[in-house]
């Protein structure tokens, strides 16, 4: 049953248009101010960052996607080989399926076999914590891939509109608190495409999370994925609900600024990150890394290792050129470079009372 659902999700993601329709990430409202006389060479740019105690050769993480079937074993193998070669990070998909069916653990553990030195993030749903999972299950999933961190995903929208969803979130953060004390690896709070607000970020920090992956709106819409799934299953009611929430969420750039305005814990900016220029804008706004999912799954399926490898190499080159053009030798420099915020993002930040805070913080960085 879960196995079928996971396969459906992957097939729908590469067969249909599942991105937000009218809501964008709002990175289009961020301009990095061009410097025609950078005092560095393109080759001088150093993308290395330290994320949760691990050195990455570029601030890029392939977001959580899959595991639990033969097909996902193949997908995970390809992504793991790419991240190992490039020195970047990777999240695996929800490992619940391997707790329920331990014979499927190999579809996840292959990641550590093929990426022995990479930064690898395990994954469990917060709804599972509410349904009885605890420290034992969290330890099992961490050990399965020798994870460097564990992401707990928060996907209330998907659970609420999914045909067989489990929208159980009562006291979820209390359950996380006990995990964070005893698990032994950092916990990352992760959305799946609707973003975190500043209020949510404060709760998350109090619960003991060490980082937040904002996974905001503007990229993959999980309501869209569930809409197609319910339609294909002939469940008109669920399809109708999912359609109504297709564009629900906090745009990624807004979510990143909201979270950054209330906490200093590391942030992964994800949800609709599609180019190295998007990444440069996210890093300039204070993200520590960026994450991307949908473009990668499509490339793995259509073009295998070479497709994913070449895409990430180009993404890295775009990021480097954007940094060169604002005279930023490092990610640290990029955070101090001038930016202009216009349009809807400006309105959003103004109405949430954090627009001036962003400019003040940047000046403080200088
Ligand atoms: C095929 C697919 C499967 C996914 N499965 C998971 C999952 O198991 N756990 C999770 O936390 N997020 C999952 N996600 C969400 C992504 O990690 C990411 O947060 C989201 O897709 C937004 O990024 P994007 O716009 O780059 O796709 C999945 C995404 C895709 C495309």
Determine the fraction of residues in helical runs and give it as a percent range.
40-55%
Class, according to the CATH hierarchy?
A: Alpha Beta
Helix/strand structural class:
alpha/beta
Spatial strand arrangement across the major sheet: 4-5-6-7-8-9-10-11
- The domain tally reads 1
Average the pLDDT over all residues and give the rounded result. 95
Low-confidence stretches: none
Amino-to-carboxy terminus distance: 54 Å
Bound molecules: flavin mononucleotide
- Please work out how many helical segments DSSP would assign: 17
Strand content: 5-15%
Total strands: 12
CATH topology: TIM Barrel
CATH architecture: Alpha-Beta Barrel
SSE order? HEEEEHEHHEHHEHHEHEHHHEHEHHEHH
Radius of gyration: 19 Å
Task: Describe the structure in brief.
The chain has 366 residues and is of the alpha/beta class.
What do these coordinates show?
The chain has 366 residues and is α/β, with parallel strands linked by helices. It has a single domain (2-365), classed as TIM Barrel, CATH 3.20.20.70. It has helices at 2-15, 70-86, 96-100, 106-114, 126-130, 135-145, 156-161, 172-182, 198-206, 222-233, 236-244, 252-262, 276-284, 294-324, 331-336, 343-351, 355-365, and strands spanning 30-32, 49-51, 54-56, 60-62, 89-91, 119-125, 149-153, 187-190, 211-213, 267-270, 289-292, 339-341. An 8-stranded parallel beta barrel has the order 4-5-6-7-8-9-10-11, surrounded by 6 helices. The relative contact order is 0.17.
């Amino acid at each position: 049953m879960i196995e079928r659902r996971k396969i459906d999700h992957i097939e729908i993601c590469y067969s249909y248009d599942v991105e937000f329709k009218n809501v964008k990430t709002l990175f289009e409202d961020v301009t990095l101010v061009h410097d025609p006389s950078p005092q560095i060479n393109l080759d001088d740019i150093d993308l290395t960052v330290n994320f949760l105690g691990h050195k990455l050769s570029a601030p890029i993480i392939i977001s959580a996607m899959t595991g639990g079937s033969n097909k996902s074993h193949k997908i995970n193998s390809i992504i793991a080989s790419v991240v190992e070669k490039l020195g970047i990070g990777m999240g695996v998909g929800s490992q619940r399926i391997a707790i329920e069916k331990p014979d499927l653990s190999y579809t996840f553990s292959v990641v550590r076999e093929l990426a022995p030195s990479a930064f690898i993030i395990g994954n469990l749903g917060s709804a599972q914590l509410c349904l009885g999972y605890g420290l034992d299950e969290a330890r099992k999933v961490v050990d399965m891939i020798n994870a460097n961190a564990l992401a707990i995903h928060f996907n209330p929208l998907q659970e609420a509109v999914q045909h067989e969803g489990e929208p159980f979130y009562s006291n979820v953060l209390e359950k996380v608190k006990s995990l964070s004390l005893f698990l032994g690896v950092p916990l990352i709070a992760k959305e799946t495409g609707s973003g975190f607000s500043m209020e949510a970020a404060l709760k998350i920090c109090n619960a003991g999370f060490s980082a937040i992956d904002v996974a905001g709106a503007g990229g993959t819409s999980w309501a869209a994925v569930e809409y197609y799934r319910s339609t294909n299953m002939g469940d008109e009611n669920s399809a109708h609900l999912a359609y109504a929430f297709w564009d629900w969420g906090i745009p990624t750039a807004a979510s990143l600024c909201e979270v950054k305005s209330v906490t200093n814990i590391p942030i992964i900016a994800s949800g609709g990150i599609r180019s190295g220029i998007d990444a440069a804008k996210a890093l300039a706004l204070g993200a520590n890394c960026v994450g991307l999912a949908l473009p990668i799954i499509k490339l793995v399926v259509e073009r295998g290792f070479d497709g994913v490898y070449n895409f990430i190499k180009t993404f890295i080159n775009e990021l480097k050129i954007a940094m060169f053009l604002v005279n930023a030798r490092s990610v640290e420099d990029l955070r101090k470079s001038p930016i202009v915020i216009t349009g809807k993002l400006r309105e959003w930040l103004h109405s949430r009372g954090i627009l001036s805070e962003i400019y003040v913080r940047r000046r403080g960085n200088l």
